[in-house]
């Protein structure tokens, strides 16, 4: 049974979401069909390309953007030479197969180029490829990869991420630029059905809080609260399962930070993207070469504390770098990070246990725990911030939590659960007037709601209007209220 259909790759590929008899979704790909003449032309051009690609003037595969344009340029000239009367659509069909099978990803090319596919899972040769679809979750596809093609794909990806596949290093990971793909490869040494490949896709432009509100992931009130927390030095930990959108939410929140403040981001591979003038992205380096030191997250968090940051951001807490991160929070730095956990309680148990082993007394240096989850809504997959907890105390080595927001499934809304203890402490510590703080939170909520109403969604537009708010809140508010913005005109 057909559930839905849509096109990918500028209409060249048709995707159908089907429902099997046992109630499982199936991702069905139909690629463009070639005429017999087009098939003969494709074979002729492919043979010619193999000869030309071996020439010394061909760009390196590491320079993917140039090598793709190089192949495309030669292929177009060959098509015009051998078939001058071919239609535009015929050129597009042939070019699709040329790029797919020379510098592309072979059988999974349609999956890589479908914006609704977030993850691609290849579980060994001659087995169905699975995807994580942004509406239907994990789905089996009608694509499988032969052993030879899978080995070629491993070679291609290994070259692109500059890793050497071998029994000595059977686990390879890296980032593909410019596609923004995170690649994990497990060779047969550790995956008996392998090679196993997981490709995770990242948006070229990050989602903003406005887009997340429009999607229902956040509410304007919650966004205003988190914005207020960041402004007043409250550290935030975002938790949730794999694929819940933790890094996406982290990136979105960072666009609420005033430009000019020093932000240090620390990651295994670059996923965060900011527009701040004073942003320093640090990336861990893994080395297999003798005499070349590994630079891990632990070293980078340590060095970040000597760079006078206003905000220390660790992409994900996993190991001993967590202890240094919490030492930084305890010494007065504001920090943000993510952690794999299904609840605040589980997150705290992970933090207290090996390999992190955070002393319970340091947990209060963490202010807010934001839980984001993957939830089913009307038989579709979506993301929601389901709980927001404040860490307000530690009693008998156990933290005391105060839930300030929670997601209500009945009407799909994020509601206040309890009054914020941290807001009260900010009022007390900064000698603020409670009425003024309440008015500021209300104004920020209205400001964000106006951004949603005026469709101020792009990272650059959000960044611009947020910084206008910092310079002159009333003027920025009035500008939004009148719709005089770059995306709101």
Automatic annotation (TrEMBL):
Single Gene Ontology MF annotation: ATP hydrolysis activity
Name of this protein: Type II secretion system protein E
Domain Bacterial type II secretion system protein E intervals: 119-378
Gene3D superfamilies: 3.30.450.380, P-loop containing nucleotide triphosphate hydrolases
SUPFAM superfamilies: P-loop containing nucleoside triphosphate hydrolases
Similarity comment: Belongs to the GSP E family.
Record Pfam families: T2SSE
Protein's organism: Caldivirga maquilingensis (strain ATCC 700844 / DSM 13496 / JCM 10307 / IC-167)
Parts forming coiled coils: none
InterPro entries referenced in this protein's UniProt entry, alphabetically: P-loop_NTPase (IPR027417), T2SS/T4SS_dom (IPR001482), T4SS_GSP_E_ATPase (IPR050921)
CDD domains, per database record: VirB11-like_ATPase
Superkingdom in the source lineage: Archaea
């Amino acid at each position: 049974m057909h559930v839905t259909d849509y096109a990918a790759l500028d209409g060249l590929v048709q995707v159908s979401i089907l429902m099997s008899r046992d109630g499982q979704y199936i991702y069905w790909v139909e690629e463009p069909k070639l005429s017999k003449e087009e098939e003969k032309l494709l074979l002729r051009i492919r043979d010619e390309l193999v000869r030309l690609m071996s020439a010394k003037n061909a760009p390196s595969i590491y320079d993917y953007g140039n090598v793709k344009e190089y192949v495309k340029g030669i292929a177009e000239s060959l098509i015009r030479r051998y078939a001058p009367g071919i239609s535009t659509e015929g050129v597009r069909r042939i070019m699709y197969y040329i790029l797919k099978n020379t510098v592309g990803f072979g059988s999974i090319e349609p999956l890589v180029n479908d914006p609704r596919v977030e993850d691609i899972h290849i579980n060994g040769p001659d087995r169905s490829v699975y995807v994580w679809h942004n509406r239907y979750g994990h789905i089996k596809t009608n694509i499988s990869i032969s052993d030879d093609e899978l080995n070629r794909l491993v070679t291609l990806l290994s070259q692109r991420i500059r890793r050497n596949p071998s029994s000595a290093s059977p686990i390879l990971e890296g980032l593909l630029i410019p596609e923004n793909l995170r690649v994990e490869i497990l060779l047969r040494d550790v995956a008996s059905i392998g090679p196993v490949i997981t490709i995770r896709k990242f948006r070229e432009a990050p989602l903003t809080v406005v887009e997340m509100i429009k999607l229902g992931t956040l509410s304007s009130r919650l966004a205003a609260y988190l914005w207020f927390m960041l402004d007043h030095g409250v550290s935030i930990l975002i938790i949730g399962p794999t694929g819940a959108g933790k890094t996406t939410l982290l990136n979105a929140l960072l666009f609420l930070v005033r430009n000019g403040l020093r932000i240090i981001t620390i990651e295994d591979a670059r996923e965060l993207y900011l527009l701040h003038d004073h942003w320093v992205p640090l990336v861990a380096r893994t080395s297999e070469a003798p005499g070349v030191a590994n630079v891990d997250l632990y070293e980078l968090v340590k060095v970040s504390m000597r760079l006078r940051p206003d905000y220390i951001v660790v992409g994900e807490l996993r190991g001993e770098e967590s202890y240094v991160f919490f030492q930084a929070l305890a010494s007065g730095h504001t920090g943000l990070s993510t952690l794999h956990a299904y609840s605040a309680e589980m997150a705290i148990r992970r933090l207290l246990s090996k390999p992190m082993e955070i002393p319970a007394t340091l947990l209060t240096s963490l202010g807010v725990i934001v839980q984001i989850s993957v939830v089913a809504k009307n038989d579709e997959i979506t993301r929601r911030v389901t709980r927001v907890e404040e860490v307000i105390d530690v009693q008998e080595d156990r933290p005391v939590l105060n839930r300030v927001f929670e997601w209500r499934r009945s009407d799909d809304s994020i509601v206040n659960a309890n009054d914020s203890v941290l807001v009260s402490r900010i009022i007390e510590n900064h000698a603020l007037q409670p009425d003024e703080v309440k008015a500021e939170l209300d104004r920020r909520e209205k400001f964000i709601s106006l951004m949603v109403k005026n469709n101020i969604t792009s990272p650059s537009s959000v960044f611009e209007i947020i910084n206008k708010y910092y310079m002159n809140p009333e003027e920025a508010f009035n500008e939004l209220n009148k719709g005089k913005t770059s995306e709101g005109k």
